[in-house]
Amino acid sequence: MATNPMHQFEVYRIGPEIKLGAIDISFTNASLFMVISSLAILLIFNLGSKKNSLLPSKVQLLAELSYSFVSKMISDTAGSKAKPYFAFIFSLFMFVLFCNMFGMIPYAFTVTSHIIVTFILASFIFVGVTIIGFMKHGLGYLKLFVPSGVPVVLLPLIVVIEIISYLSRPVSLSVRLFANMMAGHTMMKVFGGFVISLGIVGGWLPLSFSVALTGLEILVAFLQAYVFAILTCIYLNDALNLHH
Amino acid sequence: MEAFAAESGGMPQLNPEFWISQIFWLTITFGILYVVLSKLILPKISANLEIRKLQIVENIEAAEKQREQSELNIAEYEKIVQNSKDEAKSYFKQAREKLLKGINLKKDALDKELNEEIQKAESEIQELKDKAPEKINKIAVETSADLLHQLIGAEVNNSSISAIVDDLSRRKMGEYYGN
User: Fold this and answer.
1) Could you say which of A79, A228, A241, B149 is the most buried, measured as most Cβ atoms within 10 Å of its Cβ?
2) If residue A134 lies in a helix (H) or strand (E), which one and from where to where?
3) B95-148 tens-digit pLDDT
4) Which of A:86-125 have CB within 8 Å of B?
5) Residue B56 lies in a domain
6) Residue of B nearest to A51 (CA)
7) Residue A126 burial (CB < 10 Å; 0-12/13-18/19+)?
8) In the Cβ-directed half-sphere of B100, how many Cα atoms lie within 13 Å?
9) Sequence ranges of the domains in chain A
10) Which residues of A touch B45 (CB under 8 A)?
11) For residue A40, with 0-12 CB atoms within 10 Å meaning exposed, 13-18 middle and 19 or more buried, which class applies?
12) Which residues of chain A make contact with B12, given a CB cutoff of 8 A?
């Protein structure tokens, strides 16, 4: 059972079964790591914003650098109109980043390795961006599917492709994150299993591989959070500044 | 664990047993995270950054002001130094002039005194010069009379001797006194 690389993704109930009517909303290990990630974010950023000294402390510097990093990312990709959505994208980036990073701790659960979690986030973004687009431009938002400068003959085909690509956004966004996290963690588990099964003689090779993979996975954890946030910015840019 | 045993071949992610629970807790945690970050923490960080920026700008401005002030002070200081230099120069010049004037005055006074002395001496010499031929003539007359008396034992008239002496001395005056 312990050697099954998929076992780490198992969700199990912690504490009593909680039912809301007929729906099971029990607290699980997934819920636990969502809570831990959120609390860690709130703790760090609360410490980092508590007092403002001219020479920032390390935590303050961390908080302010993260703030400037996300702020720059948004203004670079979506322009100044995206400012009201800064808090959401910041929360999103931090939530995904912390969930990914907490997943790197051995025996920890990776919240973002579950398709349902990433899909809900991506769907929320998709629906939100679509609503923003229609609110800003009315039916003119549909022009997003009609790129300018395309021959009329090709137009029906292009429009269909554009609509499919638009509708597949939540799927691609959620699957990218979920698949990356699941694949990485599965691979680490597989190599970890090799270390045990090959023993003291042959275990060194998979062990060194495992060490290298850990570094790579930390990079992936950051990168996927960044990609998730920046794609959200790009979708938001489409909705705010309609020019295709 | 029965559920796990049943799922052990596939992906636990696709087991819908806890999907609703995950959606529920995701909504709760992310919602709380978003609300607290957007309402409490992010505005504070933004304000902190703004205040810091203002403070730095203020400090730079203050530094600039102080630099200008110090430049003014340097200019003033240099002016004071220049003034004192000029003053010292003028003092020196005045003292020198005063000293020279004093020296000149004394020199003039001394010159005048010397001139007077010289004149006095010259007039005395002149007087002596003027009186000398007469005395010499008189001595000549007397010695001549004495000599004549002892040589020939005759009393010669003084007036005739003095006439001869006068005549001689008048003729030889130029040779003796170089006038």
Assistant:
1) A228
2) helix A115-137
3) 999 999 999 999 999 999 999 999 999 999 988 888 887 788 788 888 888 888
4) 86-88, 90-91, 94-95, 111, 113-117, 120-121
5) yes
6) B48
7) buried
8) 6
9) 7-240
10) 45, 48-49, 63-64, 67
11) middle
12) 6-7, 9-11
Cβ contact A34:A111 at 8 Å:
yes
Q: Does B62 touch chain A (CB under 8 A)?
A: no
Closest CA to B145 of B124, B162, B126, B130: B162
How far is Cα B38 from Cα A179, in angstroms, rounded to an integer?
A: 30
244 residues of chain A, pLDDT tens digit each: 456 888 888 888 888 888 888 888 889 999 999 999 999 999 999 999 888 777 888 999 999 999 999 999 999 999 888 899 999 999 999 999 999 999 999 889 999 999 999 999 999 999 999 999 999 998 888 888 888 888 888 888 999 999 999 999 999 999 999 999 999 999 999 998 888 888 888 889 999 999 999 999 999 999 999 999 999 999 999 999 887 5
CB A144 within 8 A of CB A237: no
CA–CA distance, A87 with A74 (Å, rounded to integer): 11
ipTM of the complex: 0.90
* Structural domain contains residue B8: no
Shortest CA distance from B34: residue in chain A = A91
Domain hosting B164: range is 19-177
B7 falls within a domain: no
Q: Is residue B5 part of a domain?
A: no
Q: Which residue's structure tokens are 């908080």?
A: A63
Instruction: Give the dihedral of Cα atoms A10, A11, A15, A20; nearest 10 deg.
Output: -160
Which residues of chain A neighbour B42 with C-beta distances below 8 Å? 45, 67, 86-87, 90
For chain B, the domain total comes to: 1
Kindly give, in sequence order, each residue whose CB lies less than 8 Å from that of residue A237, ignoring residues fewer than 6 positions away. Answer: A77, A78, A79, A82
Structure-token pair, residue A82: 């995206």
